[in-house]
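Our collaborator T.R. sent over the components below with a one-line note: 'Predict the complex.' Nothing else. No constraints on interfaces, no templates requested, no preferences about which chain binds where. So this is a plain run: every listed entity goes in together, and whatever single assembly comes back becomes the starting point for the next discussion.
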Amino acid sequence: MTDQLYVVLLGTGAAAPSLSRGLPALAIVREGKIILCDCAEGTQLKLLQAGLSPAKVQTICISHLHGDHIFGLPGFLTSQQLFGRTASLTIYGPPGLADFVDMVATISKYELGYPLDVVELEPDVTSEFKVQEFQVTSKNLRHSSPCLGYRFHESNKPGKFDEVKADALGIPFGPQRGQLQSGVVITVAGKTIYPCDVMAPPIAGRIITYCTDTRPCTAALELARQSDLLIHDSTFSDAYADRAAPTFHSTSREAAEIAAGAQAKKLILWHLSIRVHGEEELNLLTQAQQLFPNTVLPHDLDEIYLRRGAGE
Amino acid sequence: MTDQLYVVLLGTGAAAPSLSRGLPALAIVREGKIILCDCAEGTQLKLLQAGLSPAKVQTICISHLHGDHIFGLPGFLTSQQLFGRTASLTIYGPPGLADFVDMVATISKYELGYPLDVVELEPDVTSEFKVQEFQVTSKNLRHSSPCLGYRFHESNKPGKFDEVKADALGIPFGPQRGQLQSGVVITVAGKTIYPCDVMAPPIAGRIITYCTDTRPCTAALELARQSDLLIHDSTFSDAYADRAAPTFHSTSREAAEIAAGAQAKKLILWHLSIRVHGEEELNLLTQAQQLFPNTVLPHDLDEIYLRRGAGE
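Returned assembly:
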């Protein structure tokens, strides 16, 4: 199916793996290509369990260098080598990421046979870059180490070409119709015709925002603005709210405040503490839903599909 | 149950994890304490899946520094920190191991709150050391990087004290009987009495030998001598035998030759290539069993119990 965009929540836990939740990693899947957000220990296996080929990962966006977000990277890189990858791979993340990749490679003596590009993003400024059909924005969140939030904004899709209107305006079949569809103004029999005269309005691209490991902050709010999907740190329920500030994490209620403030369409509670099971799952969810009803408490390998222009 | 000794085959695969096999790690469990052999990506989760507490791991023996044997170590160490471990942990392995642990800690900025002792073993000599009730011997195997095999030889258990014989010899109840049980020679009414006069012969300790990632070699043969359980590299079946030498691995037939030559009691085929599933499992197993019938082709989380003095 074309134009399909979905997210697979590979690992929804935090800090240490449990029998029910793996460590943080998330796959954004669009037209068979995968962007990975974080690469915790176990991520390469989670991809297989999700039916996703690790070879389709073209880009990895690392939030920060705490072990529970990066310790799967060495294994991912070496397995790709083993399976004969030739396609390039780009990894974005905070300063220190290139050293981590280099040092691990030095010790375990692996050499990659595919192009690997490690791009360190300056945490103190807003970065903008393009990944496939997405305009990506990253900003430093508020954690105990530099931690990047990422906003993935898909390109708009041109609206439908209206054949009836084009016929009525006397536009001949041929290249001029193509020009209008490409956004070019044309002239027919001395009359100026604008693309909007024959095209439906563009269909907005979808927005996914990934903000793990953070206190509620302005950067998260800005990144999350009008997102179709906001994945936000919700390590604790209200019962453990006193632990959120000293550990630089958020409660689910605080995540919901960001989602509401940013007018996001859907919130995924993320980076769930090992305590979050049984009734505590319900606590986390209901506390968020009081402020932001369209909140999901996820489980590993859940898939979330996003429709264009379809706020739920 | 006292005197119980068993091995849990946490990860029976090689190089990259698959849906059916995890990467190499093996737990030796004796009286609630665990020795871990290798610590691949995913090992901490495998321990949980096996119902074993990672906190019970007191010793880790690393074979070599290839990623598929050590990339679970950083996560294991940091998770133990998170769960408030205070007990010390000792890790044995080849030179470079301490650098690996230090460098990963530097990048991801973790500080361990429990005593960690990294002991680098010189690969070119035979090392001998004591771990719990085991006398451990390590030797360099034959792989593309220094790779240690480990032999774990449990202490002998004293034979049963024979009350009837003791009575007949006129040994009074009290400390002298205890002395005999501790191996001390005593004198009763001017007559010398040796422990063997009243004690059944000692019951031999069990021997487990772990030789992963190696060509067949003398070191493996020596380590495996009279083992109750030999875990030996069997990456390939005969069909891929031409790949064994250049990659410094063994076929299952070669593993069986070592087991037979060393007069081991049981062989576990280990470090199984990702190709080993379906009929290829049967090939691997039957090719080994032609030479060494008591061979097991394992699956992840299999448990192997060892009886004292019970050759199967």
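Summary for T.R.: The interface with chain B takes residues 15-19, 22-23, 41-42, 44-45, 48-49, 65-68, 70-72, 74-75, 78-79, 82-83, 96, 99-100, 103-104, 107-110, 145 of chain A (CB under 8 Å).
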